[in-house]
Write a structure and sequence with these properties.
347 residues; 2 domains; 11 helices; 10 strands; 38% helix
């Protein structure tokens, strides 16, 4: 009987892995463990054996049955997996891009910042950044802005409570923290850290108490430009501005400087520009930014000798440039997160 049981086991081990369909597996299983199967037939012979041989025979048959049943189950599972793979078809290439999910786009303000930075990087400028949280000294005092200046009024600047603590934003003394009202404060931190010569752009957000309308926002974006070295002249500033606007708006663009006043530059200027491809604004002077030569007091405040070094600085409103570049008539579109507006832009 033991030899017969071993023959049945060998048959199951060879036939079940070779089965191609569930029907074949079922037939093989029935031929071994079914009512008329070979193993079942051996079970029926046990009563005919000597009483002493019956326990051993039953034990052998049950062991064989326990070994065969997993073979049958594995054969069914294998065939089901093969049938599922056939139904699913060819395995997809997961490295291919999807075709049914819309791609995102880069925000138009980010596009504008990148374009301006790319233009000035070709002229040797590097990008410097700092935190949105700033202090009075870096944002005002170091920039030669007196205590009674209107920009330092709580109606214009967002002051933080006296007990505000920020371990990542250093103070000069015990001044208040504020949300920076311009990115000019970055030039102070950069000059203190790096000294001169220095040639940087400082893009980032700025904050002011302002009523939101088509041309104003309490949260906006600026790019501060700074170049300090020996013998930097006003003509260098004018050349840099011409270079910027010709790259942004084409070879027809030109700029002019109008005398103005800023506490941190002397002399100071408002910049107008004109270009021939601006729709209804074509060939008209448009006020676009403020600039000037770095005030000697600012250089002294950061430890630079104004008799040795000179420099220029300018501040660009990113939204204003983006409005003109893309013929947008309302600044609020930039912050509404309307995908119908945003998906128009690519970079």
């Amino acid at each position: 009987m033991e030899d017969k049981i071993n023959d049945i086991l060998e048959k199951a081990k060879s036939a079940l892995p070779a089965a191609k369909t569930k029907t074949e597996v079922a037939n093989i299983g029935a031929s071994i463990t079914g009512p008329n199967g070979e193993l079942t037939a051996l079970m029926k012979l046990i009563p005919t054996l000597d009483k002493s041989a019956r326990p051993a025979a039953g034990k052998l048959i049950n062991a064989a049955k326990r070994e065969i049943e997993p073979l049958i189950a594995n054969a069914y599972a294998r065939i089901e997996s093969e049938e599922m793979a056939t139904a699913l078809g060819e395995k997809p290439d997961i490295s291919l891009p999807t075709i049914d999910i819309a791609k995102g786009t880069i925000h138009p303000l980010t596009i504008t910042v990148r374009r301006i930075c790319d233009i000035f990087k070709r002229a040797g400028f590097t990008v410097a950044e700092a935190t949105d949280l700033e202090t009075e000294w870096f944002c005002f005092d170091a920039l030669n802005t007196p205590p009674d200046h209107p920009a330092r009024d709580a109606q214009d600047t967002l002051f933080m409570p006296r007990n505000t603590r920020a371990s990542n934003v250093s103070k000069h003394s015990d001044e208040l923290y504020i949300l920076r009202s311009h990115t000019s404060s970055v030039q102070i931190r950069a000059m203190i850290k790096e000294g001169a010569p220095i040639k940087i752009l400082a893009p980032g957000r700025a904050f002011r108490r302002d009523t939101v309308d088509a041309t104003h926002s309490a949260n906006f974006h600026q790019i501060e430009g700074l170049y300090v070295d020996r013998n930097v002249k006003l003509t260098d500033l004018k050349s840099a501005l011409d270079y910027l606007f010709k790259n942004l708006f084409g070879s027809s663009a030109k700029t002019r400087l109008r005398p103005s006043f800023f506490p941190f530059t002397e002399p100071s200027f408002e910049v107008d520009f004109m270009a021939s491809d601006l729709g209804r604004l074509s060939d008209r002077w448009i006020e676009i930014l403020g600039c000037g030569m770095v005030d000697p007091n600012v250089l002294s405040n950061v430890g630079l000798d104004p008799d040795t070094f000179s420099g220029y600085a300018f501040g660009i409103g990113v939204e204003r440039i983006a409005l003109l570049m893309h013929s947008i008539d309302d600044i609020r579109h930039f912050y509404s997160n309307d995908t119908r507006f945003l998906k128009q832009f690519a970079y």
